[in-house]
Amino acid sequence: MVNLAKRMRHLKTRLFSIRLGPGAAILPKDVKRIHLDFATKFNDGHLGPRRFFQHCLPRLKYHNPGVSMTVNRTTNQAGPATMTVFFGTSPTSAAPASTSVNERVQVIDMKHRKEPEILQRLLELTKAVPVRATEEEELEVRAMEEEAARSEVDKERNRQFLEEKRRQAALLAQAKASVSASLA
Known about the structure:
single chain, alpha+beta, 6 strands, 51% helix
C-alpha cells in the first residue's frame, strides 16, 4: 500500500483539479437540467464533446449538485453531438411538479467544436459565473506545484543513483566472470 502522505497529496491534487479550472462555474437557479448526447468514439467531430464530458462536466457537477446532468452516448458516429439545456422557473406550491409549461429548452451543437468553444457557448447561454480561486487556494496550488518540482528533482537524483548502482553491479559481475574464466 502506498504511504499515506503520497495518497493524500494525490487526492488533494485531484480535488483541486475538480474545484478549479475550466468548467468550474456556478449556473443560475433557472437552469434545471443539462443533457449531453454524443457518440462513444471521438471520430467525426465527437472529440470536443467527449473532452467536455471528461474535463468540464465533473467541475460543473461539483459546483452545481442540484442540476441534473445526464449523458447519452450512442454508437452512431454520424449522428449529432448536442447539449440540451433546460431552463425553468421553480414550480409554485399551487402548480403540480410535473408541469413543464414554464420550461424553456436551448440546444447547443457540439459537433466539430473544441472543448473551450463548447464551454464558452454554455457560459454565454446560461450566464453562468466562473469560479475564481481564492488567495488561500492559489497559495495551496503554488505549494503543490513547488512540491511537484522538488519531486521531479528527487526522482532524477534517485534515477541517477540507481543507474550508478546497476552499473557497478554489472562491472562486478563482469569482473567475477573474467576471474572465474581465467581460473578455469
